[in-house]
Design a protein that fits this description.
alpha+beta, five-stranded antiparallel beta sheet, 199 residues
């Protein structure tokens, strides 16, 4: 398992080795030792999620109140998608920045998104599945969203396929509106939470 630090602090891409043969393929998208070495603490697992999306479906940008927030370890077991992480932590040196990784069912790369960051993706093929390992259970009262079409963010959605959004994501506030409403996590609170996880 190889790892790569993305442009946003605390976000990692994990690159496993796939073993194809005449029967099919075997791959392990998660290794605790590689995760712990990169992130500095074990992966806490409270819930697993599985979504299936049509081509062009955009889900996100989603985040949760931090602390405790909700960290995610995601990979694509079927199809292909573009996974996007957005730094929405007020006071972060990379506030408003994003990074993106293609996830697919050929290479089985995975992305770790720590608490306090925004997460979104677009399905590049029909019947694309995303598997999520989540550090906390779903808490509707603590869940929030930012418009994935916010022009200030300028997220890298391909324009050659029609975009499909839920009503909730369509009506989500911009980054500036979410900041003005006091919804965004604070960078100092996130750093304190990460340090607590390491101890």
């Amino acid at each position: 398992m190889r790892t790569r630090q993305l442009a946003i602090e605390g976000v990692f891409e994990f690159i496993p080795t796939a073993y194809p043969d005449h029967r099919g393929l075997f791959v392990a998208p998660f290794h605790e030792s590689a995760f712990r070495e990169a992130v500095g603490h074990p992966l806490r697992l409270a819930q697993t999620n599985h979504s299936v999306s049509r081509q062009g479906t955009i889900r996100g940008v989603h985040f949760a109140d931090t602390p405790p927030g909700q960290a995610k370890y995601v990979y694509c077991p079927r199809g292909a998608l573009l996974d996007v992480v957005v730094d929405i932590r007020i006071g972060s040196p990379t506030f408003g920045a994003w990074d993106a990784v293609r996830l697919d069912a050929e290479e089985f790369h995975a992305v770790y998104i720590p608490e306090g960051l925004g997460h979104a993706f677009i399905a590049l093929e029909d019947d694309t599945a995303l598997a999520y390992f989540c550090s906390t259970s779903y808490n509707p009262s603590a869940e929030h969203g930012i418009s994935p079409l916010d022009t200030r963010l300028g997220l890298p959605w391909p324009d050659d396929i029609p975009h499909i959004l839920s009503e909730k994501d369509t009506n989500a506030p911009s980054l500036a509106e979410a900041e003005a409403a006091g919804l965004l996590p604070k960078y100092v609170d996130c750093l304190a939470w990460y340090e607590q996880l390491r101890n």
